[in-house]
Amino acid sequence: MDEYKEITETTIKNLIYVIRGQQVMLDSDLAMLYQVETRIINQAVKRNIARFPEKFCFQLSGDEYQNLKSQFVISSSADEKS
């Protein structure tokens, strides 16, 4: 992956989303923070599923994914205007 980049508190806060009324981080964002591929994060969860209660680890529905994706577009557009 990319060279080491300093991870700030703001960076982490910007990677936290509210889904189903819970604060969550996406597997792809965790992978970026740990500098591994997303599949590595998902494999680790599957191998250690007892450590990840359902309320802390769930898969998005298609509608939730589309909604989140649209938030990214809105967020990116707002950032470009700033």
Notes on the structure:
Helix content is 52%, strand content 10%. The protein has 82 residues and is mainly alpha-helical. It has a two-stranded antiparallel sheet. Strand 1 and strand 2 (22-25) form a beta hairpin. Helix 2 crosses helix 3. It starts with 8 loop residues before the first helix and ends with a helix.
What's the short story on this structure?
With 82 residues, this protein is mainly alpha-helical.
Main-sheet strand order equals 1-2
- Helical stretch count? 4
Share of residues in strands? 5-15%
Radius of gyration, whole Å: 14 Å
Mean model confidence by pLDDT: 82
Question: What attributes does this structure have?
Answer:
10% strand, two-stranded antiparallel ribbon, 2 strands, 52% helix, mainly alpha
